[in-house]
Q: What sequence folds into this?
């Protein structure tokens, strides 16, 4: 994975752990800040923001304080997650109405959840991560291997790879006409052959760029909401952004849970998504049942089209990197 998302999420987690120094380790007022030498006037330096605390103590004590900070989160985590799952309308509406201190900032929550999705997605599965791109072995190649099961690209025999390359050589790309675009077809063929030869590199490129393309879900969701409530002048773009951050955070949590849950339970968890979206829309924007369902249909259709283009863009970037 690239380090962009990890850096942003790490900074967000750092925000979770921001706390006042422990009394016995807080530096006295007037002590020069270790970073900028400005005399301290409180728990943090008012000039550079560094925590005014003496960290010269045992590793065990530091570790215990870190664990305490992770599970405490100033209480905001334990107030935010239940509302996000069970009362999403109240969570978003409270933030929009200015009651923001008791909950985790929406962007920070979204970044950490997005990181969680990619971490869980990268965990080893039953057949390994090579099954991300699976193909059915051609009849001839399967006969040589003595099996007709679906395999990942990294598991294919040389005969199966050769058969796939012959199939890829027949690919034809037509752009806006019935005639084959020779240059585009050659571009795709060359890169498909390199994907077949080096699938691991292709997976790594997709994983690296996937983080950045996944972030495009935020502007996509915001634009769809803005169009759905175009005639409701009481709502602004900021409202749609906060709604999207909370909604996508819940989506990420459910997807993460579904990926590590047994198959049947994972499917049940995904059924909660439309129910959650319905409650979220009505809780934030109001409106009747029929209008809410119509807007849900619009969001589903728009998201389907948008995600299709996002995936196609990700594949295009992945193929281009194989040059």
A:
């Amino acid at each position: 994975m690239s380090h962009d998302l990890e850096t942003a999420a790490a900074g967000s987690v750092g925000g979770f752990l921001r706390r006042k120094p422990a009394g016995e380790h807080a530096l006295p007022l007037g002590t020069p800040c270790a970073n900028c030498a400005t005399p301290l006037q409180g728990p943090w330096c008012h000039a550079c923001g560094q925590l005014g605390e003496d960290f010269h103590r045992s590793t065990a004590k530091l570790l215990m304080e870190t664990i305490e900070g992770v599970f405490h989160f100033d209480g905001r985590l334990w107030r935010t997650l239940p509302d996000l799952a069970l009362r999403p309308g109240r969570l978003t509406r409270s933030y929009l109405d200015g009651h923001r201190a008791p909950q985790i900032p929406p962007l920070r929550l979204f970044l950490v959840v997005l990181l969680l999705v990619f971490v869980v997605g990268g965990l080893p599965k039953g057949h390994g991560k090579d099954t991300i791109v699976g193909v059915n072995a051609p009849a001839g190649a399967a006969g040589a291997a003595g099996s007709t099961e679906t395999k990942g690209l990294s598991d294919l025999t040389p005969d199966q790879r050769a058969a796939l390359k012959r199939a890829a050589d027949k690919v034809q790309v037509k752009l806006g006409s019935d005639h084959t675009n020779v240059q585009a077809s050659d571009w795709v063929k060359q890169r498909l052959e390199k994907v077949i030869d080096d699938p691991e590199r292709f997976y790594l490129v997709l994983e690296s760029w996937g983080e950045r393309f996944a972030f495009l879900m935020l502007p996509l969701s915001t634009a769809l909401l803005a169009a759905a409530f175009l005639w409701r002048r009481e709502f602004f773009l900021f409202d749609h952004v906060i709604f999207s951050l909370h909604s996508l955070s819940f989506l990420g949590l459910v997807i993460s849970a579904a990926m590590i849950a047994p198959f049947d339970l994972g499917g049940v968890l995904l059924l909660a998504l439309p129910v959650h979206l319905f409650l979220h829309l009505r809780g934030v924007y109001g409106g009747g049942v029929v209008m809410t369902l119509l807007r849900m249909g619009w969001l589903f259709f728009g998201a389907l089209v948008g995600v299709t283009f996002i995936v196609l863009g990700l594949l295009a970037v992945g193929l281009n990197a194989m040059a």
